[in-house]
Amino acid sequence: MVKTAQGIAAFFTRDIVMPHEPLSSVKEGCMSEKKPDTLSVRQSEHDPNFMLSLARGLEVLNAFTPQRQRLTISQLSQKTQISRAAVRRCLYTLAALGMVHSPDGRSYELLPRVLAVGHAYLAGTPLAKVAQSALDNLGKNLGESCSAATLDGDNVLYIARAAVNNLLSVDIGRGSRLPAWATSMGRVLLSALPEEQLEVTLSRASLIRYTPYTLCDLPGLRQEIARVRMQGYALADRQIEVGLCSLAVPLLSRSGQVVAALNVGVPAGYTNAAALKEKALAPLRRAAMALSLQL
């Protein structure tokens, strides 16, 4: 990996390629099966200090997404692979703590108090602070929305965002999460993983056809991520939303490790992927390089 400031500069001046990224309401299954993640159970069997009930409660919270903001006990059980009885106990406890509630007595949704769990990280991490300032300037110069995200399990976690126009059907801001495999920033971050870890991550992902253009077959994703790794950037055109085209580049630490990704998103209706690359790749790389030198 790159070890010096000069090396970082050389990395960002390479000719790099990106995946396309949109968000749509189409939810057809693709050529991948969701494999149950029993990591919590396996961990508890071998580690007497591991608190399985706490892990299950967090898994229930993580099951809620911008696309699925209200879920029933059955849906949560299916999504988390936790028994209905255990999910019910988790929800009872979370409701008592003011983190979820059931508006209709059947389904559950998150309450604002959940934000307190991650607020300390998002408000206090130096990376989020310096990234926000850089994105504000970049967004103003380009006249487009810009974001920064890190990899959080199978998702990207937004740590900073400068929104010019909201191009998604759901509100995106700090703390929002989207599936890594379907987004430009996610594909950049996935491309930095060791092959074995990448395969594990892809094998357990629910590959949903968000739009008619979503690349959601494993062979195609592997090829795209390999191209991103080789070229150094990702273009996601209408992958997760029909109206969105985005471009992302990696953000490197001084030691050359990929610690986050930066992206620019534009309306797919008036700008295609090639035009976005021409307009935003160089400024995006410059912003990432400047940030890298501050880390």
From TrEMBL:
The keyword Flavoprotein does not apply. One of its GO terms (biological process) is negative regulation of DNA-templated transcription. Residues 51-112 form the HTH iclR-type domain. The keyword NAD does not apply. InterPro entries: GAF-like_dom_sf, HTH_MetabolicPath_Reg, Tscrpt_reg_IclR_C, Tscrpt_reg_IclR_N, WH-like_DNA-bd_sf, WH_DNA-bd_sf. GO terms for molecular function: DNA binding; DNA-binding transcription factor activity. Keywords: DNA-binding, Transcription, Transcription regulation. It comes from the Bacteria. Residues 113-295 form the IclR-ED domain. Signal peptide: none annotated. SUPFAM superfamilies: GAF domain-like, Winged helix' DNA-binding domain. PANTHER family: HELIX-TURN-HELIX TRANSCRIPTIONAL REGULATOR, ICLR FAMILY, TRANSCRIPTIONAL REGULATOR. This is Helix-turn-helix domain-containing protein. It comes from Klebsiella oxytoca.
